[in-house]
Amino acid sequence: MTQHPTTPTVDAVLKTLTEKIHRQERFIAELQADLERARQASVGTMLGQFRLREAVLLYVGRDADNFEQQIAENFGSDVARAVSNSLFVLDNVPVPKTPWR
What is the Cα–Cα distance from 79 to 40, expressed in whole angstroms? Predict the structure, then answer.
């Protein structure tokens, strides 16, 4: 016959596993926050480099609000805000069908 673990042993294992899960969840949250900060810093650096080179970001087309919403969904609202602050929107501007020569 196999012996079944006693209730205190099961409780101790359960408590230990629960603590490990909570530590892992905190660690994951910290990593996600670090990733978000790194992403924001890299976008800010990139946009700063564009400004230093006197380059501009242009959005030519329709539905610029949808474009900004997509950025927010993909990269977060802080990144979307930084990009939209540096973005010039030329909504509904006609685009030539042939390249300029």
Answer: 6
